[in-house]
Amino acid sequence: MFTPTAIRRMLVLALPLVLSLPLGARETLSVAWSHWPPFSQIEADGELGGLDVTLTRRILGEAGLHPTFRNLPWARALHLVERQQLDVAMGALKTQERERFARFSAPYRRASFVLLSHRPGPGEPDRWQGLERLTDLCQTTGLHLGKLRGTRPLPLSEECPALRQATEYNSDDRLITLLLARRLDGVIMEWQHAHHRLEQLGASGFTQCQVLLHQQPVSLMLAREAVSEATLARIDAAIATLPPPGPAFATPECRLDATPPSDDGGS
Hints:
Organism: Aeromonas sanarellii
Domain Solute-binding protein family 3/N-terminal: 28-253
Oligomer: single chain
InterPro entries: Solute-binding_3/MltF_N
Order of helices and strands: HHEEEHEHEEEHEHEHEHEHE
Keywords: Signal
Radius of gyration: 22 Å
Region (Disordered): 246-267
């Protein structure tokens, strides 16, 4: 018969083994989040919420997994997934480079990138009305555009001088501030985040969507050592049961649509 002291000693010795088990065996996955409304945010009741958080909880729950959320900047989350020290990053774009160290679920939503402008004031000319095609926009000079530093929201940006020359800024809030102050003619942003922020500021009526630039599918990016192919299949099966996005997350209506008719959202 084991004494209490012997039992405690056995538990101490066994704990490192338990912690070293594959996370799939423990049915728990660590998930990164950062403040990115309306996709991930602290709600008024103090609880973590947002579209990505809600969908991830549902997807992993139906796959028999339990998410534990960690507040991490995106660059840090990507680094930790690569080092197999974080299990899941939400809202990820599948790339060949990332597939070296991660598995990707089926897409669970689409991100829309748009070109937003401020509305002309009373008596002001609307310089955008003369741009009836994307080629007109691309060849326009003198447009002061901005985008988030490091983003590549449009595959044809390299072929479009007006977009390629957009000035980079460190935050979306800065872009919106400059747009509303009329110091920028337009900004390239993820639509849902821009719309959410403008509504918070009571300024959605002061802007208009000029061009739907690009749509891309986003997935759960999972560290390779965190999930097996069988577990990934359960996650994909859960994604297949998701309802279509509600009206608040529908594709934005813009004056011009730069996406090809056959575009499936890939990049």
